[in-house]
Specification:
With 493 residues, the chain is an alpha/beta fold. 41% of the residues lie in helices and 13% in strands. The protein has helices at 33-39, 105-108, 110-113, 116-121, 146-149, 158-179, 188-201, 214-225, 245-270, 281-294, 307-316, 324-335, 340-349, 361-372, 379-383, 386-392, 399-408, 441-451, 471-483; strands at 48-51, 54-62, 72-80, 90-95, 122-127, 207-212, 230-236, 428-433, 454-459, 490-492. A ten-stranded mixed beta sheet has the order 1-2-3-5-4-6-7-8-9-10, with helices on both faces. Helix 19 links the parallel strand 9 and strand 10 (490-492). The two termini are 27 Å apart. 56% of the residues are buried.
Amino acid sequence: MSTIPAIALVVACGGGSDSSDRSNESSTTVSVGRVDAVRTWSSGIDWSDCGVALECGSFEVPFDYDDPSRGTFVLPVTRRLADSDERRIGSLLVNPGGPGGAGLSYAEYADSIFGSTLLESFDIVAWDPRGVGGSQPAIDCVDTMDDYFALDPSPDDDAERSDLVDGAGEFARSCRERSGDILEHVGTVDAASDIDVLRRALGEETISFIGFSYGTQLGATWATLFPDTVRAAVFDAAVDPTLGYVDGLVLQAGGFERSFDAFLDWCDRQRCSFIEPGSDARDAFDQLADAIDANPPINDGRPATTEGILSIGISQSLYGDYAWPRLADALDAAKAGDGAGLLDLYDAYFGGYDDGHRSNMLDAYFVITCADRRLSFEPDDILAQADRLETVAPRLGMGWIQEMLICSQWTAPPSRTITVSAPTATRIVVVGSVGDAATPLAGTRNMVKALGNARLIVSPLEQHTTYGSDGCVTVAVEEYLVELIDGPDELEC
């Protein structure tokens, strides 16, 4: 995405070393005693009916399992009850990704997300992780993303570079002022620890899990901490757990650039309307990007359609080739001076526009991503990545500088981290697709290796997450979750 690596999400930080994160400050690793501390905490759930076959409730977890006196989060949870008492296996936990994705809708709309086999066999259970969505307290950073992300992500001079650094610093300071001490307690290790509390609250000895995008990192962390509680786990569009913060985002920038190249090739074949006769999609786009940089289209009451809005609008459209026609139309309109289509895509990336943004999804994304970094670094360290990003992603790469600058001015120290390795009783199923921009297949393969007891399913689709879209993937995932059917080390769908 030329600015943030899209969120429907995905994060590319993880448990490995990062040659690009320059600092003498190391993060705190998880001790063996952490599991014991988590298991001394318990919470019940008082369920109430909240729809057809739906029950709603909440459970409580401490800010800090090592010192529960610091305060607690109350996390909302919803379950869609299994259709068949006779065929019911247990609970299937679902996380939609992010970080920052609120989960409750995955239970509320389970009938349109999961196949009938899963709906018969499992209570579909989804919750809003600590700090996210309806969690109390919740992460809060800014009223609008426009103040920062409408800036030019590829500064042409010192003034634009200073605007980026200053804007990122203001974003980070606002997160601290509005969210306070919870910023130090929303990392992935903390959220993964909450899964064990939820499992016990549901009365399950072992439990099943399906996570999408960042949900794969959350699930892998949980499976590493509590492998004996994993009945089955599916990680769809898995992140690379071996890379640190900067290296992970550089990998992701390359993934989005590859997908954008695929879009431009498609436009050449389709002769997209923004292409002049005798030209090709790349030349036409480059001319359009230069024109927007020099003279951004004006939008009444909203920011002009700047290069930053162009970048995010493009990224929003690269999660699947089903969105390419809309991007092509928006580029054609922008060529004629109408930037509204690109602004709509930009707004969609942030969850819609309504006097700013509608949820804390992106606020939580940045807070959790910055918490999960392994090292601290300075703005100059990030700006020094410009050449590397332009090499990996010449058209979109500079947008990732914009995101990294926020974490470079983060005041909270890095949170606990963990090296993924999950000796589960059954093999975990990892799913990747050849055309995934947000979690490139190379990184998904590294998730399989890191887990140590996992197998891979590869989809040929040009999109991010494939359960429910690729029939071969869907059948294999459901057979595994219901019957614990194993398969080859790698299945190509």
